[in-house]
Specification:
The chain is α/β, with parallel strands linked by helices and 317 residues long. Helices cover 37% and strands 25% of the residues. The model has no long low-confidence stretch (mean pLDDT 97).
C-alpha cells in the first residue's frame, strides 16, 4: 500500500496498521521529494515517491492507496487510483459531496476494486457497544452528539493567514473535519433525517468554524454540534423513554454510562485502545482479501454525505 498525504493522520494510520498484518505500507507519496523522503524516514516506510501521482499509480509494486490529502483532492486522487486498478481507502470525508462519492462508487464497481471511507468511529468496537445497548433505552426521543476541539491552527487564521483545514478551496472547515464524526453515527443508527435546520459560524475569508443541526425524525429529534474554534468535554447522549446512554466521545467511544428509569446505573469501561484507525483498516483489508461486497459501507457513506450536503444548504439560507 502507498499513502498519499503527510499529515498527522497519515502518521497515525501507519502506526495503527502495524496491528493489521494484511496491510503493508511500502511507499509514502508527497508532491515534493524532500517531504516524501522525510516523512518515509520518520515513519519507517521503506519507499517514497514524489512528482506526478500517475507515475506512482502505474507501479505494480502497490495494489492499494490510503488517501489523506486535503478534502478537495480526494475525488481526483481516488478517481485516478481506481482507474489504475488500485483499491482505495480514503480518509473522511471521502469526498466533500455525495455526488462525487457516487461517481467514485460507480467507477470502483466498474473497475472491480474496493473503495472504502475511513470513518473510524462507525467501525470502532465502542460504537458496536453503543448499538448493543440501544434496545434497553426503550423508544428513542432525544439524541445529542457533539465534537468541539479548538484547532491549533485557528490562531493562524486569526492572524489573517490561510491554512488548508480552514480553506474553503480545500473543502476545509469544522463540518467536514469534525461534524462528520457526529453525522456518520447519527445516520448509521437512525438513518437520514427527513428534515433538518442548521446554522454555522463562517470565519472571515475562511470556511465554517462551528455549527449545529437540529434534525427531525418520526417520534424524536436529534441535535449535533461541532466546532474548531472552541472546545468542550461535554459527552454525547441518546435518551429513550426507559433510560439514557451517555457516551464520553462520539469519535471514539470508550466509556458508556447507562441510567435506567428504574434507578439502575451501569458504567461500561470498554478498555479499547486509542487511536482507532486500525478498525476501518481491518475492514478494508477484509474486503480486499475476501471479495465481499462493499456496497453496505458505501451506502452509509452516501447517506452521511447527503445529510452533510443538506446541512450546508441549510446553513447557506
Amino acid at each position: 500500500m502507498a499513502t498519499i498525504g503527510t499529515s498527522t493522520i497519515t502518521h497515525t494510520f501507519i502506526a495503527e496498521t502495524a496491528e493489521v498484518p494484511e496491510i503493508d505500507v511500502t511507499v509514502a507519496y508527497s508532491r515534493t521529494a524532500e517531504r516524501a523522503q522525510t516523512f518515509a524516514a520518520a515513519n519507517g516506510v521503506p519507499g517514497w515517491a514524489a512528482g506526478p501521482l500517475d507515475d506512482l499509480l502505474a507501479s505494480d509494486a502497490i495494489d492499494a492507496v490510503y488517501i489523506a490529502s486535503p478534502n478537495a483532492l480526494h475525488h481526483r486522487q481516488a478517481q485516478a487510483a481506481i482507474a489504475a486498478g488500485k483499491h482505495v481507502l480514503v480518509e473522511k470525508p471521502a469526498t466533500p459531496t455525495a455526488a462525487e462519492f457516487a461517481d467514485l462508487v460507480a467507477a470502483a464497481h466498474a473497475r472491480g476494486v474496493v473503495l472504502l471511507e475511513g470513518m473510524r468511529n462507525v467501525y470502532d468496537p465502542g460504537f458496536a457497544a453503543v448499538r448493543d445497548l440501544l434496545p434497553r433505552l426503550g423508544t428513542i426521543r432525544r439524541v445529542s452528539f457533539g465534537y468541539q476541539q479548538r484547532s491549533a491552527r485557528y490562531d493562524i487564521v486569526l492572524a489573517g493567514e490561510q491554512v488548508n483545514i480552514f480553506d474553503p478551496a480545500m473543502a476545509g472547515g469544522a463540518l467536514l473535519d469534525l461534524g462528520v464524526y457526529c453525522i456518520a453515527p447519527l445516520v448509521d443508527l437512525f438513518g437520514e433525517p427527513p428534515s433538518l435546520v442548521a446554522r454555522s459560524i463562517p470565519l472571515p475569508g475562511a470556511a465554517d468554524g462551528a455549527g449545529a443541526v437540529l434534525a427531525s425524525y418520526p417520534g424524536f429529534i436529534a441535535d449535533a454540534s461541532w466546532s474548531k474554534i472552541t472546545f468542550s468535554h461535554r459527552p454525547s447522549e441518546i435518551q429513550g423513554e426507559l433510560g439514557t446512554l451517555t457516551i464520553d466521545h462520539i469519535a471514539a467511544p470508550r466509556t458508556l454510562h447507562l441510567t435506567l428509569l428504574d434507578g439502575t446505573e451501569e458504567h461500561h469501561e470498554l478498555g479499547i485502545p486509542r487511536p482507532n484507525l486500525r478498525y476501518h483498516a481491518r475492514r478494508f483489508a477484509h474486503l480486499v482479501a475476501s471479495g465481499d461486497d462493499p456496497s453496505p459501507d458505501q451506502t452509509r457513506t452516501l447517506r452521511t454525505l447527503r445529510t452533510m450536503d443538506a446541512i450546508r444548504l441549510a446553513c447557506a439560507d
